[in-house]
Amino acid sequence: xxxxxxxxxxxxxxxxxxxxxxxVHPLYVLFFTQGFSxxxxxxxxxxxxxxxxxxxxxxxxxxxMFLWRKLVAVTTGIYLPWTMEIGPGLHISxxxxxxxxx
Length: 102
Hints:
Elements: H1 7-22, H2 26-32, H3 34-51, H4 55-76, E1 78-79, E2 98-99
Parallel strand pairs: 1-2
């Protein structure tokens, strides 16, 4: 039986994919890669969506994630809703109009 990787493990696998695929410095991925910014927003918001069960806390955090996602979408053109499932190690190699729906 296959188990799902943990939250930080998934983010790390995404991060490693960007470093290996783009052949860039690790700090470059963190601060200048639009695809990783959009994916990080998705990962955090998806985790909140699935695992925070206190309604007021969940809604408050999701509003913050929505604002962050909107900023990412306006600056990069990448829109990843937190309701969909994305496996670990995704690499978004370009920015621009990219909308993925569940």
